[in-house]
Amino acid sequence: MEIIKTHLPGVIVIEPKVFGDKRGFFLETYREDILQAAGINAKFVQDNHSRSTQGVLRGLHYQLTQTQGKLVRVTSGSVFDVAVDVRHGSPTFGQWYGTQLDEESMRMMYVPPGYAHGFIVLSQSADFLYKCTDYYHPESEQGILWNDPDIGVDWNTSSISSAISLSEKDKNNVLLKDQPHDKLPDYNDFILDMEVDK
Hints:
Elements: E1 2-5, E2 12-15, E3 19-21, E4 24-26, H1 32-37, E5 46-53, E6 57-63, E7 70-76, E8 78-85, E9 96-102, E10 108-111, E11 115-121, E12 125-132, E13 141-143, H2 168-171, H3 193-196
Antiparallel strand pairs: 1-2, 2-10, 3-4, 5-12, 6-11, 6-13, 7-10, 7-12, 8-9, 8-11
């Protein structure tokens, strides 16, 4: 596995080694020792699997209680995956990072607790898998509007032919500037190891 650090603390892209021939392929999708060496000291307690059609955009989501780190990957199709630092008081507050995850590269991304997460499906459909560091807690789920102009995520929508499809919940997400501070993770509660080490 190759570990690629991004400009957002704790947001890491993982490029696995894929061994393939005419019979198929093999790869390691999780290696605790390698992830720990990269600063991901997480215990994963829940696995999720979603399937979505082209243009479906899910996000940007985070939880205030039982905050979740997510190790995400795609097993079929292609998505553009995004993490946004929503930790109030963070030096990188409101900044985003995105990368394409697809069945060809088998690339993965780790989104730490305290970040909002979302993705848009680029292919006709996509199977999206993620390991979570805590359990889903719908009562504390929060959302930031996917097209918040102050964040300015480039969702790579020029590569899809269908319209963006949002859930009713995601249509009603708020702008980051309008989210009360008590509805945001506090930076001091989510300072990551790599920030302390600087």
